[in-house]
């Protein structure tokens, strides 16, 4: 979306369109046809793609061993608000050329923050007013907003879990402004990610008290948002470590237990990230299944790690097997509860052409579209679900059913084992199911 007189930041790149499998055009979708109906819904409604404001328009390619390699033309102006408006022009130009229906942001990515709360609020409000115009002109919507409570030096020991109440109050002020911005922009959800809500050493940490403070902080923020009329869902995004040694939102199961313990289940669900799952020693499919089984599958951040690197590399998703297996779980769970697929991924340090950002998103969107089509075909045309159902058939009748209904004592189970003798070996048919997925891919 480029208005009259506005600079074009991605010149020479036109609207990205669906051209199908016969196309050799690298600037076109081969699989993602937003209007194609799969399993009773359009691809657009199934996938609900979102662009991550931070990686795409703020991430500069810098790493612990070297400075920025991406020099953005929208970062030229001296005034923070005017510079941020140029960045938003670039963002909406890219998002609309990609035909992505949503975006997500951290507050400090929308506009640079300083140390003055009132000045930060003024800057953010100016960009909220500008974003309202951009959304109205383009039809792009806000999937979720969030506050960055981990980058500033004041948050070196966390925000909601900081041992210093003064720091917690600063975090609350920042969350209030981010919530106000999300509500004003019609954001459908709000995310909390505890980047430093954890500990580096238990020697100086009161873990019980910190987790109680985190729960109280979440309740306080939730109550404020509801009072302001926010109807959306709050998400917690699990991650086991990095930058802290141990984070309290370690994985899906940990967060599920936390939400239950502190009476937050009614308002909160999970936003799961692929690379965070692998850092926790899980597959992404595992995390999805844990969330789905708990009724907490809210949204996902799509990316991948590197098998040779043990940290959060945030690369764009390209593994069709992983995404197909993931879409099987998402489809069987009935889809996302409020969220969608946010590309929390960044182009590589040496990917320095403006076109690289397009190639990355095209590849990611096509991978998920292909995974969706493949997963639906597997569910509709193969015996995939039957194999798993049959594996548990012994619980569908007789003594197995009585056990599930709580009708058998330990003595009853012992007597049954004696009567039936040694169980037969029953194959799990893992290789067969793996081949089924590859066949449909």
Automatic annotation (TrEMBL):
It is an enzyme of class 5 (isomerase). GO terms for biological process: D-xylose metabolic process. Mg(2+) 1 binds at residues 237, 273, 301, 344. SUPFAM superfamilies: Xylose isomerase-like. GO terms for cellular component: cytoplasm. Binds 2 magnesium ions per subunit. Belongs to the xylose isomerase family. Its main location: cytoplasm. Its EC number is 5.3.1.5. It catalyses: alpha-D-xylose = alpha-D-xylulofuranose. This is Xylose isomerase. It is found in: Cytoplasm. Homotetramer. Keywords: Carbohydrate metabolism, Cytoplasm, Isomerase, Magnesium, Metal-binding, Xylose metabolism. It comes from Mucilaginibacter myungsuensis. Gene3D superfamilies: Divalent-metal-dependent TIM barrel enzymes. The keyword Protein biosynthesis does not apply. GO terms for molecular function: magnesium ion binding; xylose isomerase activity. Mg(2+) 2 binds at residues 273, 276, 312, 314. The keyword Repressor does not apply. It comes from the Bacteria. Its cofactor is Mg(2+). The active site is at residues 106, 109.
């Amino acid at each position: 979306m480029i208005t009259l007189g506005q600079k074009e930041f991605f010149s020479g790149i036109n609207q990205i369109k669906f051209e199908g499998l016969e196309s050799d055009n690298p600037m076109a979708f081969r699989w993602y046809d937003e209007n194609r109906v799969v399993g009773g819904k359009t691809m657009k409604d199934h996938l609900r793609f979102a662009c991550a404001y931070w990686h795409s328009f703020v991430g500069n390619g810098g790493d612990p061993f070297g400075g920025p390699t991406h020099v953005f033309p929208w970062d030229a102006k001296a005034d923070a608000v005017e510079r941020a408006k140029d960045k938003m022009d670039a963002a909406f130009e890219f998002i609309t050329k990609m035909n992505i229906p949503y975006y997500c942001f951290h507050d400090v990515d929308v506009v640079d923050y300083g140390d003055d709360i009132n000045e930060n609020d003024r800057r953010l409000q100016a960009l909220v007013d500008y974003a309202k115009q951009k959304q109205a002109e383009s039809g792009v919507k806000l999937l979720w907003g969030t506050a960055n409570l981990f980058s500033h030096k004041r948050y070196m020991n966390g925000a909601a879990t900081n041992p210093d109440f003064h720091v917690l109050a600063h975090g609350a002020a920042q969350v209030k402004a981010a919530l106000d911005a999300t509500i004003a922009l019609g954001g459908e959800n709000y995310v909390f990610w505890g980047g430093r809500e954890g500990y580096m050493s238990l020697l100086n940490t009161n873990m019980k008290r910190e987790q109680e403070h985190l729960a109280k902080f979440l309740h306080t923020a939730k109550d404020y948002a509801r009072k302001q009329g926010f109807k959306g869902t709050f998400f917690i995004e699990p991650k086991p470590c990095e930058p802290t040694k141990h984070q309290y939102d370690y994985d899906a199961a940990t967060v599920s237990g936390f939400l239950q313990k502190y009476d937050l289940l009614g308002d909160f669900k999970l936003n799961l990230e692929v690379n965070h799952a692998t850092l926790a020693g899980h597959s992404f499919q595992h995390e999805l299944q844990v969330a789905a089984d708990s009724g907490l599958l809210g949204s996902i951040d799509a990316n991948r790690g590197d098998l040779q690197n043990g940290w959060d590399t945030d690369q764009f998703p390209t593994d069709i097997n992983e995404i197909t297996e993931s879409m099987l779980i998402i489809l069987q769970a009935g889809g996302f509860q409020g969220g969608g697929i946010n590309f929390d991924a960044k182009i590589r340090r040496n990917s320095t052409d403006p076109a690289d950002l397009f190639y990355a998103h095209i590849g990611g969107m096509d991978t998920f579209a292909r995974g969706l089509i493949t997963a639906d075909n597997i569910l509709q045309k193969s015996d995939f679900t039957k194999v798993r159902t049959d594996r548990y058939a012994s619980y569908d009748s007789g003594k197995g059913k009585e056990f599930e209904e709580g009708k058998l004592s330990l003595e009853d189970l012992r007597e049954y084992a004696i009567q039936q003798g040694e169980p037969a070996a029953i194959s799990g048919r893992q290789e067969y199911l793996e081949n089924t997925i590859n066949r449909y891919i």
